[in-house]
Amino acid sequence: MQTPSRFNGKKYLNTIATSVSPPNGYSRMLQRWLMGKEIRTPQQQLGPFAVDVAALAEPVPASALRVTWLGHSSVLLEIDGKRFLTDPVWSRASPVGFAGPKRFFAMPLPLTSLPALDGIIISHDHYDHLDEAAVRAFARTNVPFYCPLGVGAHLRRWGVAASRVTELDWWQHIEVGGTHTLVATPARHFSGRGMLDRDSTLWASWVVLGPQHRAFFGGDSGPFEAGFREIGAAYGPFDLTMLEVGAYDENWADIHMGPDHAAAAHQALRGRLLLPLHWGTFNLAFHSWTEPIERLQTIAAAQHLALLLPQPGQRVDARSGAANSRWWHEQSTL
């Protein structure tokens, strides 16, 4: 049964019990952060990577299914004549510009070189998914935003016209241009940008339906196989799923999937091709920076899953099936 989100008057709630706090306490987690021996960041500067801006300037073909992964959860999705941008983050994953997790590589596409967009899709308001500086730049354009309930307040405060902001609850949908449909769907996560606004806005995954293709953008979510199965039954099978695989750990096992649960989610969604997100861009967890993708490849080989593994900034045709650039291997051996 497709149920809307749960709101208790102050906070949004997950549909199943979900813990955000580390079970062994924050002091133990801090000690591990300071003393851990994992190679959490690349040994050298990655890149440079660059998008083919001239190619992106061309109109999107009516039968296209192309993706350009810009790092973390930022993806240019070209689907059946329209182009959407997910969770655009050009800055540090931090409330301040001078500290906090910084990108392993420069954004492959300058903001000023972005092609025309049919919409920006936001999954939730965490700093590694919602970049104030980028939003303020987009506010000077006419691009529409699609976001979960409550997130629109951030966008309007940063200058986006209210008429260009659409907020949806889980299972609500909106038509775009008479040809496409966006559906906000459930996820298992949390929200907040400060100490006092935890869970005051909703988090969501998104379904993108075109005339010929179907794509799923997971945002952030913990293990949620029953929920993904429900989404897959309602809107699948998906030609492309875009799911988080990085920044996982036992300390936050309820709110991030990691490679194993991402593979299970992909299958529950009835996905054909999996583009892994949320890895290789920021130091946000205790694992080595290449562990998520290496683990996912092992799982995919055992379970016969098709992966799409482009280099940052590389525009790839998802209709052609699995592809592996091995960019992280090439970069780590420079």
UniProtKB/TrEMBL annotation:
Keyword match Hydrolase: yes
Gene Ontology annotations for the cellular component aspect, listed alphabetically: cytoplasm
The UniProt record lists the keyword Transport: no
GO molecular function, one term: hydrolase activity
Entries under InterPro entries matching the protein: Metallo-B-lactamas (IPR001279), RibonucZ/Hydroxyglut_hydro (IPR036866)
Residue stretches making up the Metallo-beta-lactamase domain: 83-279
Organism domain of life: Bacteria
Keywords: Hydrolase
Gene3D superfamilies referenced in this protein's UniProt entry, alphabetically: Ribonuclease Z/Hydroxyacylglutathione hydrolase-like (3.60.15.10)
PANTHER family with a match to the protein in the record: N-ACYL-PHOSPHATIDYLETHANOLAMINE-HYDROLYZING PHOSPHOLIPASE D
Name of the protein this chain belongs to: MBL fold metallo-hydrolase
